[in-house]
TrEMBL record, chain A:
It holds the Pfam family BPD_transp_2. Keywords: Cell inner membrane, Cell membrane, Membrane, Sugar transport, Transmembrane, Transmembrane helix, Transport. It comes from Actinomadura yumaensis. This is Xylose transport system permease protein XylH. The keyword Membrane applies. The keyword Ribonucleoprotein does not apply. It comes from the Bacteria. Part of the binding-protein-dependent transport system for D-xylose. Probably responsible for the translocation of the substrate across the membrane. The lineage of its organism: Bacteria, Bacillati, Actinomycetota, Actinomycetes, Streptosporangiales. The chain crosses the membrane at residues 45-64, 76-98, 127-149, 156-176, 196-214, 234-255, 261-287, 316-336, 348-369, 376-395, 401-418.
TrEMBL record, chain B:
This is ATP-binding cassette domain-containing protein. PANTHER family: CARBOHYDRATE TRANSPORT ATP-BINDING PROTEIN MG119-RELATED, SUGAR ABC TRANSPORTER ATP-BINDING PROTEIN. GO terms for molecular function: ATP binding. Pfam families: ABC_tran (PF00005). The keyword ATP-binding applies. It comes from the Bacteria. SUPFAM superfamilies: P-loop containing nucleoside triphosphate hydrolases (SSF52540). Residues 8-245 form the ABC transporter domain. PROSITE patterns: ABC_TRANSPORTER_2. SMART domains: AAA. InterPro entries: AAA+_ATPase, ABC_carbohydrate_import_ATPase, ABC_transporter-like_ATP-bd, P-loop_NTPase.
Length: 427, 253
């Protein structure tokens, strides 16, 4: 092979002006749609499978139970049903982004909820002391896992499997065999059982929609002014319109009176929903806009590259387990609020699997490096819809297990296949 | 070129791993504005020498002069502080991130708590344009969508983004096709033309003769010759690599 540098150099200089012509050009809608389609074909599916799955499930259950599934009461029920699994999944997204797993997040939520319940019932502490302590317990558990995984370097699978057993022992010790601790505190119970005043719900929904539109349009303008890569205005506006419409329609449905008897009025958004909203905004901001979030993606994508770039991989690895356990504590509180009580098996059973399943169904990869906070919300809704729909159909327990397990496996298969596809098209 | 002081000069560097003597009394210089090719057979000690230059391995004895001043490197960070960047054979890019994000990885620009994406994107586009890097499309492409040559280009661009003075490239064209190799070699040449000192490790004599100003040949841990590329032939260099001597060059008979 012969190389003639001077010639090549001149050619390169001539071409320099046209570098990144693609960046300076305003993308038109067709190019953007083409880009998106090529991303989907190369295995980067984004939120598409979760949204399609959710739509499919809604159609299916509406067809099978037309009079109950889409009733306002059931929709409100669905939204609180999704609370614990969504919050748990949101914390797990951070762990999954590193390609790690936290099998103990479910039972950690049980321990934290048990601590909260014991403090309120036995020690007579006010709810905020109990909640702060429960979150503190979550942070301690997460720190322990993070230390064992990132410093001692035990695989996270083994560490959290050990804690999965150990923490169940702690819950059992706290609650007592066969015991139940009731949760009667007004504030805690309100989280999943009480609703916001209708006017407050509308105010928040409109504020959120307006805020979302403002940030998106602001970013679009800024990218255009500085000549950066951006999407066409039509697409940005379309996305804003769809999300705003979804927000407002949900608010409208939840603001209708859903009381079974005409004597009382039950309406408004359940208090847990804005909690998830706040967590979603915080996580999206941290993952997408801060150096910390960028480093989480980098460690998940290529830990060695991140280390060489000067990122403290140990600290990042430790932090995601702390975040997951903290969210597990919040999830445990939400579950306790929904059930009004804590039993020794709180957070056991399928809790963790459903949390991981929600994150994966939403689009987070089990292989690390890919995932968003919103995946937890979408996946949580899918999981809750399956649970809710099967309940309405009166499915037997065995069918419930089989179907939920099947859905989980299906989501993981899509993830694995999409990853193969990505590897194959990485020219 | 009338450059007299080397940017980097090693004198009498020894390095052993246990009882294995990997580098013996090695002298090596790299000059600003020039490409110095480092050649040698497998196991000759090229990679070890590069790791000593990059501060990854401490050397046992010898002198390390940067701009004529003796320095002691304790870690890759010290090397980076001097403006020495090594692009390793495995490129260490995050495939799930885009070009801009990789270029600024670990050294993100921020405004308060938030990443300053706009400034980073502008700087990235400017750096890549300054290196006349073409055929890359958008700077917001993910690394996973890039070809091997484009990835190599991104890795090199990352090394020169930080006012580097000396860039060491470990087999940048090893796994590339003809056209991509040509692009990377052009880039290597441009780096030197912009005044950087470039050290290029390569097995390919065509590549070496195409871009280098000087050739340094290692043979079994010894630096057997450091010559101007114009003064030697293909055959000379191959003989230096395989037997340590070629005519008057290399080890004494």
């Amino acid at each position: 092979m012969s190389t003639n540098i001077p010639e090549g150099k001149e050619a390169a200089v001539k071409l320099a002006d046209s570098d990144f012509a693609a960046d300076r050009r305003e993308h038109d809608v067709r190019a953007a749609v083409g880009d998106y389609w090529s991303r989907v074909r190369s295995g980067d599916l984004g939120a598409v499978p979760a949204i399609l799955g959710l739509a499919g499930l809604v159609v299916l259950f509406t067809a099978l139970r037309p009079e109950t599934f889409l009733s306002t009461g059931n929709i409100a029920n669905l939204s609180t049903q999704a609370l614990p699994v969504t919050i748990l999944a949101m914390g797990l997204v951070f762990v999954l982004l590193l390609g790690e797993i936290d099998l103990s997040a479910g039972v950690a939520s049980g321990v934290c909820a048990a601590v909260m319940a014991k403090l309120m019932v036995d020690a007579g502490q006010p709810w905020y002391v109990a909640v702060i302590t429960a979150i503190g317990v979550g942070i301690v558990i997460g720190t322990a896992i993070g230390w064992l995984v990132s410093v001692v370097r035990i695989p996270s699978f083994v560490v959290t499997l050990a804690l999965f057993l150990g923490l169940q022992g702690i819950t059992l010790r706290l609650i007592g065999d066969g015991g139940t601790v009731p949760v009667r505190d007004d504030v805690i119970v309100a989280l999943a059982n009480k609703n916001m005043p209708v006017w407050l719900g509308w105010t928040l929904a409109v504020l959120c929609a307006a805020g979302y539109a403002a940030t998106q349009l602001w970013r679009w303008r800024r990218q255009r002014e500085r000549g950066l890569v951006g999407r066409p205005l039509v697409l940005v506006a379309g996305q804003v319109a769809v999300i705003a419409a979804a927000l407002l329609v949900a608010t409208y449905v939840l603001s209708l009176d859903r009381a079974p008897s005409p004597l009382i009025v039950i309406s408004g958004i359940p208090w847990g929903v804005p909690l998830v909203g706040v967590l979603l905004i915080i996580c999206t901001f941290v993952l997408g806009r801060t150096p910390y979030g960028r480093h989480v993606y980098a460690v998940g994508g290529n830990a060695e590259a991140a280390r060489r770039a000067g990122i403290n991989v140990t600290r990042i690895r430790m932090s995601v387990f702390m975040i997951a356990s903290t969210f597990a504590a919040l999830s445990g509180i939400a579950a306790a609020s929904r059930l009004n009580s804590i039993t020794p098996d709180a957070g056991g059973g399928t809790t963790l699997l459903l949390g991981v399943g929600a994150a994966v169904i939403g689009g987070t990869s089990l292989f690390g490096g890919k995932g968003k906070a919103r995946d937890a919300v979408l996946g949580g809704l899918v999981i809750a819809t399956i649970d809710n729909g099967l309940g309405l159909l009166g499915a037997k327990a065995y069918a419930n297990f089989l179907i939920t397990g099947g859905v989980l496996l299906f989501a993981a298969s899509i993830d694995a296949l999409a990853r193969r596809r990505r590897a194959a098209t990485g020219r | 070129m009338s450059v007299t002081t080397p940017l980097l000069e090693l004198r009498g560097v020894d390095k052993s791993f246990g009882s294995m003597k990997v580098l013996r009394d090695v002298a090596f210089s790299a000059y600003p504005g020039e490409v110095t090719a480092l050649v040698g057979d497998n196991g000759a000690g090229k990679t070890t020498l590069v790791k000593c230059i990059g501060g990854i391995h401490p050397y046992d004895s010898g002198e390390y002069l940067f701009e004529g001043r003796p320095v002691r490197l304790g870690s890759p960070r010290d090397a980076a502080a001097l403006g020495i960047e090594v692009v390793h054979q495995d490129l260490a890019l995050c495939e799930n991130l885009d070009i801009v994000q990789n270029l600024f990885l670990g050294r993100e620009r921020r405004r308060g708590l938030v990443l300053d994406e706009a400034t980073m994107e502008e700087l990235a586009a400017k750096t890549l344009s300054g290196l006349s890097i073409r055929t890359m499309g958008s700077v917001r492409q993910r690394i996973s969508t890039l070809s091997g040559g484009q990835r190599q280009t991104v890795a090199i661009a990352r090394a020169v983004l930080w006012d580097s003075r000396l860039v060491v490239l470990d087999e940048p064209a090893a796994a590339l096709g003809v056209a991509q190799t040509q692009q990377v070699l052009e880039l290597v040449r441009r780096l030197a033309d912009q005044g950087l000192a470039v050290v290029l490790i390569s097995h390919n004599m065509n590549d070496v003769f195409a871009v280098s100003d000087r050739i340094a040949a290692l043979y079994l841990g010894r630096m057997v010759a450091q010559v101007r590329t114009a003064d030697v032939t293909h055959t000379n260099v191959v003989e230096l690599i395989t037997s340590g001597r070629s005519g008057d060059l290399g080890l004494p008979r």
